Amino acid sequence: MRDLCFQENANGILLFIKLTPHAHCDEIIGTMQGGDGPVLSAKVRAIADKGKANKALITLMSKWLGIAKSNINLKSGSKSRLKTLAITGDSDELALMLGEKLAN
Asked: Could you state, in order of their start, the residue ranges of all structural domains in the chain?
C-alpha cells in the first residue's frame, strides 16, 4: 500500500492516476483513495477509443506540471481507468512539484 499518489524511481517518478474519460472538461481533481493507495483523479473530454483519452491525459499532465509531453509515458493501464504514468526527470524536483500542486 502506498502513502502517496506517486513513487520516485531512478528515472523520475511513477504517477498513479484514476482517469474519467468523456467528461465535460479536462481537469485534475486531486487525490483520492484507490484500491492500492492514493491516486490522482483526472478527467478528460476525450473518449476512451483508440488511445484518445490516454493522449489527452498526457497532454493535460504536461500542461499541469509544465513539462514536455515527451517526458511523460503511459507505463500501464492503457485500457483501464487506473493508469500509471512514468515521468522522466529529477525525481526530487518532480516530487516537490507534485507536492506543491497537490497542496493548492
From this structure: 6-103
Residue of 20, 94, 32 lying closest to 64 (CA atoms): 94
| CATH architecture of the region 6-103 | 2-Layer Sandwich (3.30)
Residue with cell 513539462: 67
Beta strand spans in the chain (E) = 6-9, 12-20, 27-34, 37-43, 72-76, 82-88
| Cell numbers at 50, concatenated | 483508440
pLDDT tens, position by position, 17-28: 999 999 999 999
> pTM for this one?
0.93
Q: Burial, 19: exposed, middle or buried (Cβ in 10 Å; 0-12, 13-18, 19+)?
A: buried
**Residue 64: C-alpha distances to residues 2, 10, 33, 50, 97 (Å):** 23, 22, 21, 23, 10
